[in-house]
């Protein structure tokens, strides 16, 4: 079994919580952590910056497409960040826990 971290950002905590609840209810994520961040980026030819909420989603790699679809259904950004970072290694007990709580 392979595992990964999926990252996305949201405009506010309410939007983040909506996504988190859906992912957990559908057993697409074992754990989601959030952190307030400030992002700097180029969008439509202009340098921008904004406060955002970063979501760190821990799951099985095979669930990526379902996680992406769930996020896209609820996300309010025109082009949301949704990226997957595979785990190179992990504590066996932690990875077993991910297996137990995801589909």
| Biggest sheet, spatial arrangement of strands | 2-3-1-4
Unreliable stretches (pLDDT < 50, length at least 5) are none
> Which fold name fills CATH's third level, the topology?
Alpha-Beta Plaits
Q: How many strands in all?
A: 4
Helix content: 25-40%
Terminal-residue CA separation: 12 Å
Q: Quote the beta fraction.
A: 35-45%
The major sheet is characterized as: 4 strands, antiparallel
Radius of gyration: 14 Å
Mean pLDDT: 97
Helix/strand order, N-terminal first: EHEEHEH
Indicate the CATH architecture.
Answer: 2-Layer Sandwich
Q: Which structural class do the helices and strands define?
A: alpha+beta
H/I helix tally? 3
- What's the CATH class, please? Alpha Beta
Description:
- This protein is α+β, with helices and mostly antiparallel strands and 103 residues long.
- The protein has one domain (3-101): Alpha-Beta Plaits (2-Layer Sandwich).
- Helices cover 33% and strands 40% of the residues.
- It has 3 helices and 4 strands.
- Strands 2-3-1-4 form a 4-stranded antiparallel β-sheet.
- Strand 2 (31-43) and strand 3 (46-60) form a beta hairpin.
- The longest helix has 13 residues, at 13-25.
- It is elongated.
- The two termini are 12 Å apart.
- The model has no long low-confidence stretch (mean pLDDT 97).
